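Weekly modeling sync, notes
Attendees: S.R. (lead), two postdocs, one rotation student

Agenda item 3: backlog of single-chain predictions. S.R. asked that every request posted to the team notebook include the full sequence so nobody has to chase files. The rotation student volunteered to paste the first one in as an example of the format we agreed on. Action items at the bottom.

Example entry:
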Amino acid sequence: MELRDIEMFLTLAEELHFGRTAARLHVTQARVSQAISRQERRLGAQLFDRSNRRQVNLTPFGRQLRDDLQPVYAGLRDTMERAHLAAQGITGVLRVGMLPVNAHDFRPYWETFRSRHPQWKLRIRHAPFNDPFAGLRRGDVDVLVTWVPVEEPDLTVGPVLIAEPRILAVAAGHELTQRTSVSMEMVSDYRLPTARSGPDYWFDAYIPPYSRGGRKIERSLVVGNNEEVLALISTGEIVTLYPVHMVRYAPRPDIVYLPIQDIAPLAYAAVWRTESENDLIRALARTIRDLGPHPPTE
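Predicted structure, as returned to the notebook:
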């Protein structure tokens, strides 16, 4: 296998969806499909079960190949990256995964870190909300910006970057758009999404299971990513909560955002693997503490 083919295979093994894999790798879906088919012909075995129309699944052979290739590919990629950076005088890279989409709002932290530590490179990337801490544990990112609480024994919760008011996203034309704001009691009348995987307590902090009055909030539709959530909102199948920065970062003609009266702001903090803490992580945490929490987005 060529390095690019390995990257396509491992990305598809993670996403289990040709369209999302193609988008992530900035190639066409046909190219991903052709690459996987070519690998299967060379290896003489099927890597993915394509019987499900919505997503593919790894075969036992595919799972074995994924498990064998992941550490080899990661090691090779890191070696090439270190060599490239060393040639530029960069001695370390800090990778920050962002669950919220407003990384631009936090540029004072990023700029201060870079000015204080020009010998280190700071890389900001998107992080998925499904299985949210897997990237930290695999070593894909060094720090994760996520909502709290995080109560994982192997993870350290660092300083808070922001605490944002929450809003409700509904389809344009939804009956709730007749109101200027809503309550969680009202929200409990509608269907909301849930993640495929992740700690219950963590998702409860984002969408509580009950309103303050004790009404159950139904989180019944399993979703894989935010694009899928937005599509389901736009067709009226679900409503969902978001931090208020979505008003600026995801304005859409088919979705209306409504203030919620009776729910606390959602705080986001920096989190990292305790055993992986190093000078770069400590420097970023110190930068965040020095600057203090970012003002809530209005």
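Discussion: group reviewed the output briefly. The CA atoms of residues 48 and 58 lie 4 Å apart.
Action items: rotation student to repeat for the remaining queue; S.R. to check formatting next week.
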